[in-house]
Amino acid sequence: MRTQRKTLLGISLLMSGVLLLGGCGARVATAPSGDAPERFPVTLDNCERQRTFDRPPRKVVTNDIGITEIMFALGLEDRMAGYFLSDGQRNGVRSSPWSAKFERTPHLGEEIGMEGVRAAGADMVFAGWNYGFGETQRFTPERLEEAGIDSYVLSESCRSGVEDRRGIMPPLRALYTDIRNLGELFGVRERAERLVSEYESTIAQARERNAGRDSPSVFLYDSGRSEPVTSGNGGAADQIIRKAGGENVFHGLDDSWTTVSWETVLRADPDAVLINDYGGRSAAEKIEFLREHSAVSELDAVREGRFFTLPYASLVEGPRNASAVRELARFLEDVPADE
Fold first, then answer.
1. How far is the C-alpha of 116 from the C-alpha of 106, rounded, in Å?
2. Which residue positions does the secretion signal occupy (predicted)?
3. 205-220: string of b/e by CB count within 10 Å (b at 16+)?
4. What is the Cα–Cα distance from 251 to 247, expressed in whole angstroms?
5. Which residue in 83, 246, 280, 327 has the fewest CB atoms around it within 10 Å?
């Protein structure tokens, strides 16, 4: 028995030494960088609500192209269980700087829902109000929480507290907020700060192109025949237009994506039309519709063909926003601004 106790004591001391060595750095070899348990819990301010995460998410499900590209830009595709994306956004995938990552990451379906999220084994969902989350579909952060699944809400889509209106901060600040929050959550803070710095630099250079010039007015046409869908001041598109040196004719609307009337478009008499390349109709079809519209076709911008097209992924919150500002600024250099 004494021999056995000595043997057990020796094993115990040996294991203690291994554990001490692990505490001096061996843990790094067994855990991904930034996932050290001592970083948690992590509390983030998301849509003016404190969200606490007890562990780093490892099976994230995203919805919509811009949201998914945020994860890709941060190099977090290995933390994803997959993404939901409608067929109307497939063209955006083909033009995406991260198209190869889209191909390597599971496409879980067109429409996000509890069944698909559970089937993917998700431990967090990254989506937004009207970007997947909604009471009509009974798919909300609260319902996910009841199911034991964390959530993060796209900051551009945060509700303002007035009905279902969205937008609580400037849209580009929303992008930087999400990049920094996710950088903190996943332990990639340096990469997050580098991205924000790059975007800020790109936008600053673009603004210089049209500094001192009058701002051409821009009508963003997303979709709609009887009534057009456009962007108010809560959407990324509004700030993209303004940073590029233009003025969104519907900047006064306290919402992100919203419906207006053709009469208000006519009264605004925009200097240029920005086409959102998204949905079942191509950008060319949307332009043709405007050219053939009995009233809208009389606008100078339409008659003179002052159209510019950007993909949907550039006009919703996402890592393509900065390049969208740069491209639109180049176009607006040649657009006359009416007094």
1. 12
2. 1-31
3. ebbeebeeeebbbbbb
4. 7
5. 280
* Class of 37-198 in CATH: alpha beta
The Cα 8–Cα 284 span in angstroms is 78
Q: Does the structure show a pLDDT above 80 at 233?
A: yes
Compute CA distances 284 → 153, 265, 288, whole Å: 33, 20, 6
Q: Report percent pLDDT > 70 for the chain.
A: 89
- 37 cis-preceded (ω within 30 degrees of 0): no
On whether the 214-332 domain is CATH 3.40.50.880, my answer is no
Question: What's the rounded Cα separation, in Å, for the pair 69 and 320?
Answer: 8
Helix (H) or strand (E) holding 265: helix 262-268
In angstroms, what CA-CA distances link 81 with 1, 115, 152?
52, 14, 15
Specify the pairing of strand 49-53 against strand 42-46.
Answer: antiparallel
CA 180 – CA 186 distance, rounded (Å): 10
pLDDT of residue 37: 56
Segment 146-160 mean pLDDT: 95
Residue 181 CA from chain centroid, whole number: 13
DSSP readout, 59-109? SEEEESHHHHHHHHHTT-GGGEEEEE--GGGHHHHHT-TTHHHHHHS-EEE
Residue 256: is its pLDDT beyond 90? no
pLDDT higher than 80, residue 26: no
Q: Could you identify the residue written with the tokens 């979709």?
A: 223
Domain ranges of the chain: 37-198, 214-332
